[in-house]
């Protein structure tokens, strides 16, 4: 009995260490950007609300990131998948509507790296998942998608609002 107790503690410690090591290898959850420069942050946003800068598009400069956390979008892809979604601040995608169904999988995620967005939708019948990628922007985004079988052709247009 005493030997068992002595061996149990190192075994529990080893299992805990393995579990924590696995967590460190997970990819980061979206919702934040990897652009760490702060040179222009605040200088363009401060005092610009409610003013007309004359710009017709709100697309970022090439390579710049866009803050999309908390924004709502709707649209459909080229094969007819209609969706209404929110890019939540924790990096998950809340699908309020997917082809007429409420579709909210915890593994649906999004991330912006530089000026590129990647959105992953899982649990889709027959094709397992869809991964949409493209240039992150406000107002309208045009993304291309690949399904879980490796098939492409899922061009997606999303409109903010």
Can I get a quick summary?
This protein is α+β, with helices and mostly antiparallel strands and 161 residues long. It has one helix at 2-24; strands spanning 71-77, 82-87, 93-98, 101-103, 109-113, 116-124, 128-135, 140-147, 156-160. It is 14% helix and 35% strand.
Describe the protein.
By secondary structure, this protein is an alpha+beta fold. The protein has a domain at 71-160. The chain is built from one helix and nine strands; from the N terminus they run αβββββββββ. Strands 4-3-2-1-9-8-7-6-5 form a nine-stranded antiparallel beta sheet, with no helix packed on it. A hairpin with a 3-residue loop joins strand 6 and strand 7. It is elongated. The termini are far apart. Mean pLDDT is 76; it is low at 23-57.
Measured distance between first and last alpha carbons: 65 Å
Shape: elongated
Output the strand order for the largest sheet.
4-3-2-1-9-8-7-6-5
The proportion of residues forming helix, as a percent range, comes to 10-25%
H/E order of the elements? HEEEEEEEEE
User: What characterizes the major β-sheet?
Assistant: 9 strands, antiparallel
Q: What structural category do the secondary elements indicate?
A: alpha+beta
Alpha-carbon Rg, integer = 21 Å
Uncertain residue segments: 23-57
Count every beta strand, where a strand is a DSSP E run of 2 or more residues.
9
- Count of DSSP H/I helices: 1
Strand content: 35-45%
Taking all residues together, what is the mean pLDDT? 76
């Amino acid at each position: 009995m005493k030997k068992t107790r002595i061996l149990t503690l190192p075994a529990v410690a080893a299992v805990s260490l393995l579990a924590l090591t696995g967590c460190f290898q997970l990819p980061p959850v979206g919702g934040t950007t990897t652009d760490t420069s702060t040179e222009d942050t605040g200088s363009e946003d401060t005092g610009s609300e409610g003013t007309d800068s004359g710009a017709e598009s709100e697309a970022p400069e090439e390579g710049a990131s866009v803050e999309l956390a908390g924004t709502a979008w709707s649209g459909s892809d080229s094969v007819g998948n209609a969706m209404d979604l929110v890019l939540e601040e924790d990096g998950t995608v809340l699908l309020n509507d997917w082809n007429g169904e409420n579709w909210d999988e915890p593994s649906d995620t999004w991330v912006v790296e530089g000026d590129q967005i990647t959105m992953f939708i899982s649990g889709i019948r027959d094709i397992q998942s869809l991964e949409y990628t493209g240039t992150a922007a406000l107002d309208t985004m045009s993304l291309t998608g690949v399904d879980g079988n490796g098939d492409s052709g899922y061009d997606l247009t999303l409109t903010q609002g």
